[in-house]
């Protein structure tokens, strides 16, 4: 694709169709809209963009916006799933590796703590990282006395 000189530009730049003009950055909907506006402002008035090309670019913009909205919804769903899954671990017995002694320790999950750097469990008063957990089991139930009939 040949990019012609535009209003005051001194040289013509050759860009192949495989070159990444935007570098490694992803162009978001704001960047796409700015690019479209710049293209409209700098188009040749004697040969303006066709209606079909303009409609196609608007459709691409709409598609980009919908994909970003879908991505946000998936992120929210993953966060909700993480909270739900970790909350279901409260009351479970676990075996974890103690960071100080290196020993395997058995304990009961009292609380789940979600931080920006990961998920932690409050086990018998200690805050344990999820990557220290080695085993999760149901809490042993105490046998209940059967009434004599």
Describe this structure in words.
It is a single chain. By secondary structure, this protein is an alpha+beta fold. It is built from 2 helices and 7 strands. It has 2 domains: 2-84, no CATH class; 91-137. Helix 1 runs antiparallel to helix 2. It starts with a strand and ends in a 12-residue tail after the last strand.
Short characterization:
This protein has 149 residues and is an alpha+beta fold.
* Percentage of residues in helical conformation: 25-40%
Structural class: alpha+beta
- Between the first and last Cα atoms, what is the distance in angstroms? 91 Å
Strand portion, in percent? Answer: 15-25%
SSE run? EEHHEEEEE
Overall morphology: rod-shaped
Per DSSP, the total helix count is 2
Strand order of the largest sheet: 6-5-4-3-7
Low-confidence runs of at least 5 consecutive residues: 1-21
- Strand runs, count: 7
- How many individual domains? 2
Describe the sheet with the most strands.
Answer: 5 strands, antiparallel
Radius of gyration: 29 Å
**Mean pLDDT over the residues:** 77
Topology:
Blueprint (H helix, E strand, L loop, with lengths): L1 E2 L9 E2 L14 H13 L9 H37 L5 E5 L6 E12 L2 E6 L2 E4 L3 E5 L12
Antiparallel strand pairs: 1-2, 3-4, 3-7, 4-5, 5-6
Helix pairs in contact: 1-2
């Amino acid at each position: 694709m040949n990019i012609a000189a535009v209003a005051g530009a001194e040289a013509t730049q050759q860009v192949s169709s495989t070159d990444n003009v935007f570098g490694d950055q992803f162009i978001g909907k704001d960047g796409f809209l700015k690019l479209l506006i710049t293209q409209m402002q700098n188009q040749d008035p004697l040969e303006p963009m066709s209606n079909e090309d303009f409609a196609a670019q608007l459709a691409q913009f709409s598609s980009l916006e919908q994909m970003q909205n879908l991505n946000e919804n998936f992120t929210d769903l993953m966060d909700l799933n993480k909270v739900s899954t970790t909350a279901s671990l409260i009351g479970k017995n676990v075996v974890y590796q103690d960071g100080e002694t290196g020993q395997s320790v058995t304990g009961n999950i009292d609380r789940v703590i979600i931080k920006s750097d990961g998920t932690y469990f409050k086990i018998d008063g200690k805050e344990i990282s999820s990557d220290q957990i080695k085993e999760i089991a149901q809490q042993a139930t105490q046998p209940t006395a059967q009434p004599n009939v």
